[in-house]
User: What shape does this take?
Amino acid sequence: MPAVTADRPKDFIRDIIDADLAAGRHQKVVTRFPPEPNGYLHIGHAKSICLNFGIARDYGGVCHLRFDDTNPTTENVEYADAIMGDVRWLGFDWGDKLFYASDYYERLFELAVELIEKGLAYVCDLNEEQISDYRGTVTEPGRPSPFRDRSVAENLDLFRRMRAGEFPDGSRVLRAKIDMASPNMKLRDPLLYRIKHAHHYRSGDRWCIYPLYDFAHPLSDALEGITHSICTLEFENNRDIYDWLVEHLTLPARPHQYEFARLNLTYTVMSKRKLLQLVEEKRVHGWDDPRMPTLAGLRRRGVTPEALRAFATRVGVAKNNSTVELALFEHTLREDLNERSPRVLCVLDPLEVVIENYPEGQTETLEASFWPHDVPKEGSRKLPFGRRVYIDRSDFSENPPKDFFRLAPGREVRLRHAYVIRCERVVKDAAGTVTQLVCSYDPATRGGDAGARKVKGTIHWVSAEHAVDVEVRLYDRLFQVEMPGAAGSDPLADLNPGSLVTRAGCKAEPSLGAAAAGDRFQFEREGFFFVDPVASRAGAPVFNRTVGLKDSWAKAVQKAEPKAEARPAKPATPGPARAREALSPEAQALADRHGLSPEDARVLSEPGPLRKLFEAALALHANARGLAAWVVNELPAEARAGNPLPFGAPELAELVALIDDGTLSGALGKKVLAEMLTSGGSPKAIAERQGLKQIADPAALGPVVEQILAKNPDTVARYRSGNKNVLGALTGMVLKETRGQANPKLVTQLLLDKLG
RNA sequence: UCCGGCGUCGUCUAAAGGCAGGACAAGGGACUUUGAAUCCCUGAAUCAUGGUUCGAAUCCAUGCGCCGGAACCA
Assistant: This one.
């Protein structure tokens, strides 16, 4: 079994797989990633891809890439191609396991025929509106279609003629015959096939009937021998159809569906529909706009597949509806980019500085490392320095706030890799805007070495004479609120107007003139940048800001002048629980007659299997309270629903008797019960077979307690220093040591005695 | 309202009846030729109420809250 590491995560799906493998239900794991080629993949899909392909990798299995292309009117090759490119870019390989639902059309048709022949499907002539009407509502059952009882022969004939193109679109459908009154609306005779005289991007005009997802998906899984079909939570209700189909049809395999929570991110929308709308309404510049959460957009923004995979691992896999903070993604991104991005200097908002004591016409070259000391990489470049340089406008303040380390009149600052300079004068235009700073430099600080002097601030700069002009695109979150479209509003109303700021004429150090498409840099003190592969020209790179650096100064400034930003209110906290309802007369009678707790009496007063079991056992062993406690608290939920138990009242009575006479402790009783639940049998026999007998002799337990205490000095120390919770842990250890046979009360007492 | 799913620090996620842990975020500090990175520290949670148990986030009951479900979409 694979060890859990950062890259080998553990989650409830892997737990299921572990159990399936251990039980021998499968020898090999086969998963699948099933996109529909009707849009671009986004970061939410990345989570699913990492899960499915990751499981295949971890368990030595395979993951299929299967296009769920059952809707000819929305799908096309461009999308399919883009999806394949994206999956590959993310770092996954499906080998020769590339499949299309559209390749199964013939076999799916045959399976539909089998269903009809079994009397489990029928052709329905109701129109769309009628079907919806007949379906009922969530609270009212549906009504059977008038076509529900057509003969097999007629259904077969009609279905074949549907295929032959004899009927117009929408005139007929094939439906499964399941249950029009099912509380699960998905089971109210779901549609299997619809007529669509439409050209399909792969099957062309060969078909005019197309299967629906609920039919095509489980069957495709079965045909491919998928073992674990993993999808998102909104398909939970569809699982019943899934199971119904794979159980009623003749198929080579019996796959199972499991659902996990899809990824949501703050300041982002993830629905395909909304994303499509952003593109179609030109709110962004296409699917690969770097502000989009699509893989194409993220890639163009400069996000790496490694960062995406690490992120997928970090967010985990569970069934909670969850929204991950964008900050976690940004952190994961910076973590990855930090290691791979050479440091360079680029001034985004240039302000000219003239160094008045630096000789006119002189230029010198400084050596500057590409890497900070804590990134274990080598390499440097030459940085020209001259009398005129640019610094960033935000690195100067005429009236510096408290703790401002940068340049201000009369103050010193270090130019990264160069010299310490002092601001001597400020030059302004008629409007009062600062246009130039006149500074002096200290020749003794060459290379940035300030000697004994303490210079708190270091800023980036570029030689004016040597700077190359570049375009920089500063991307920010696409939406300005955490939950775009919350409370049913239009998310597009929450678009961040500042999500893209394009800055031409940024001053970059000369080495950047040669930057090639796809290169990554850190502009020191600014952020991580990526050379846009689309907009860049040879010698004229365009830099996309992938993500800014963390900026604790900006945070401090923001805190100083707090802006009210209302966080969306937490969902209402539950009010006080309602007062306990009075016991019903039957329950009260039961409680009085047997001395039961009100809680147990209430449960047992309900007529049902529990009640019967209790009464039958009571006739055999006269301990009502004990029996009630076991029946009410320890029997699984299925027993309540009336599923037959592998044992009956005599065994239950025997179990409680064993506990009452001290042969078994409660804990041992539970062990025995677990065995009874799986394979039935007499508790006495089970206890004997497993050699379970309560140990309640202090002389026998004393040494074990000593031993555990001696082996766990740390835990003992924690107990002595006040953590009384560890008493339970120690009790647990003693219990484990005795295979659960020690009497826990006695153990606790012994422990207490020894610990003082 | 019916069916299904889910409720653990602000967020995401662990803990298979036995020490409620980790990460991000937050706050503080050290270091610093990037107000970055790194390192250290702090605060911060089991939806509620009952029950079972030596011991409950975990089992049982009741309630509350949130999400999904009535496409010829997937």
Observations:
- Residues 1-6, 564-580 of chain A have pLDDT under 50 and may be disordered.
- Chain A is about 35% helix and 15% strand.
- The two ends of chain A are 43 Å apart (CA to CA).
- The longest strand of chain A covers residues 420-428.
